Amino acid sequence: MSLRRWICDVIVQRNVRFQGAVVSRFLATEAKDEIVDITTADEQPIYSNELQYEELAKKRNKSRLNLHDRNILMGKPPYEQPMQWYHNTTRYKKRMLGRYGFEGNKEPAGFAWPTPKEVKILQEYERVAFPLSLQERWKKLEEEKRIKAEEAEIAEKLSKVDQWTAELNARVAKKKTELEAARLHKERMVEEIRKHFGFKISPSDERFKTMMEQKEKEERKKKKEAKKKAKEEKLKTMIQKKNQDQETDLTKPVE
């Protein structure tokens, strides 16, 4: 190629690019003044093929997550087709059915029910593991509860045995003291009656009985008077204490 020919080609290419730029700017200027009817536009874009749609979907995915992770994030099943061996197991399919509903499985819902063989195995397990019926187990629990309550009551009573023994011994000692005091009192009364008559008299004698009743009346009278006197002394002490408190309040300086 000659130098002259090369120079001509360069000039032509520059002219073509310049004309293209001018035409593009002119068309853009014309488009600004043009009125577009948006009612004629399609609501959804139409792509020429599925590959372009997939490419556009990848560009829209700004999270850069894997497909299964993004499906989980969007609340969809992670895989449309089985990817691992355990994806074909009944356990995994049951989990997908429970988590995503019928969209999580392409199997009918009946696959989740146990087979007749599995039902027999479960029944045998129930028979061995839980031999008692629900009513029998309930009665057994009630019986165990009753036995535990009785054992707790017995343990509580056993813990109070020492206390009860001490109280019983105190009551017995008190009773013995009272009986001994009564015996000494009776002997003293008998001795006083015999001194009164001046000779030994039988307790079955009517004179002895009459004198004994008279002595007992005098003793009861003395006890009654002593009790009354003690009550009066107690009341007198309370009145004196109350008067002293009132005098103290009156003599106390007012703040």
Summed up, what is this model?
The protein is mainly α.
Kindly describe this structure.
It is a single chain. By secondary structure, the protein is mostly helical. Among the domains are: 66 residues, no CATH class; 69 residues; 32 residues. Helices cover 72% and strands 0% of the residues. The radius of gyration is 59 Å and the shape is elongated.
SSE order in H/E notation?
HHHHHHHH
Q: Which structural category fits the helices and strands?
A: mainly alpha
Low-confidence stretches: 30-34
Question: For the report, how would you describe the main beta sheet?
Answer: none
Number of strands: 0
Shape by Cα distribution: elongated
Strand content: under 5%
Q: What is the arithmetic mean of pLDDT?
A: 76
What would you call the quaternary organization?
A: single chain
Task: Report helical residue fraction.
Answer: over 70%
| Alpha-carbon Rg, integer | 59 Å
Number of helices: 8
Roughly how many Å apart are the termini? 130 Å
Key features of this structure:
Ribosomal_mL64, mainly alpha, 0% strand, coiled coil, Ribosomal_mL64_sf, 255 residues, mitochondrion
